[in-house]
Design goal:
AzlD domain-containing protein; about 75% helix; two-stranded antiparallel sheet; about 5% strand; mainly alpha; 2 strands; about 100 residues
Length: about 100
């Protein structure tokens, strides 16, 4: 069953990508729709990151994880190297958990 699901998702993904290539010349989108699609992708990514940062299963993840994400976000915004961003975020969360915060 798992292999069938993986194959189905793979075929569907390939079909969608192929459809985009084949319909590119036939389908024209207005500038408003193109801007909206670009913003929708960014909003979806932000919602996914926010959910992953704040939730663990169906409950609030606690203070440590969002604090680590905040530290990592600030360092990324300040253009710190990726390794520094990841290590600082992980260290922040680990130290807060070590201090007893959830």
């Amino acid at each position: 069953m798992l292999i069938a699901a993986i194959v189905t998702l793979g075929v569907g993904t390939y079909a969608m990508r192929l459809g985009g290539v084949l319909l590119r010349g036939r389908l024209s989108l207005s500038e408003t729709v193109q801007r909206t699609l670009a913003m929708a992708a960014a909003a979806l990514l932000a919602a996914l990151a926010g959910t992953a940062a704040l939730m663990a299963d169906t409950h609030f993840a606690g203070v440590a994880r969002p604090a680590g994400v905040l530290v990592g976000g600030i360092l990324a915004w300040r253009r710190a190297p990726f390794v520094v961003v990841v290590l600082a975020a992980a260290a922040t969360a680990a130290l807060l958990r070590l201090a007893g915060l959830p």
